[in-house]
Amino acid sequence: HLQLVESGGGLVQPGGSLRLSCVPSGFTLDYYVIGWFRQAPGKEREGVSGISSMDGKTYYADSVKGRFTISRDNAKDTVYLQMNSLKPEDTAVYYCAAADSWASLLVNNYWGQGTQVTVSS
Question: In whole angstroms, how large is the CA radius of gyration of the chain?
Fold first, then answer.
């Protein structure tokens, strides 16, 4: 399994911002596709955003387009998810995952502890 550690979650008011971090443990993110997923209580886990280390291509779910930005800091070997204009419906546990292709990322079934994001006034 490719183990990653998520951080940066917290409680924020609607309209606020958070930046999540995803750091690999025991490997580097080179040559992998990295994705952010989230799971809200009572709902299935869903893909939020992804980035390919190979060609820099990115993906965003329609629900976060224009509000979230995924990026990678090569020097720190860290992937970030900048979340702006947060809404209560963004409340969820956020997970990151890595795979050797977009297709493999979609069927990933190994998850870390995640980081809780709560958007509430």
Answer: 13
Residue type, 59: Y
22 near 36, Cβ under 8 Å? Answer: yes
Q: For residue 102, what are its two tokens?
A: 């977009």
pLDDT at 113 exceeding the cut of 90:
yes
Q: How confident is the model at residue 87 (pLDDT cuts 50, 70, 90)?
A: very high
The candidate with the shortest Cα–Cα distance to 13, out of 71, 85, 101, 92, is 85
- Quick: pLDDT tens for 34-57: 999 999 999 999 999 999 999 999
Rounded Cα distance, 63 and 88, in Å: 12
Q: Around 51, how many Cα atoms within 13 Å sit in the side-chain half-sphere?
A: 19
Query: Bridge-partner residues for 97, per DSSP?
Result: 35
Q: Please answer whether residues 82 and 92 qualify as being in contact, where contact means their C-beta atoms are separated by less than 8 angstroms.
A: no
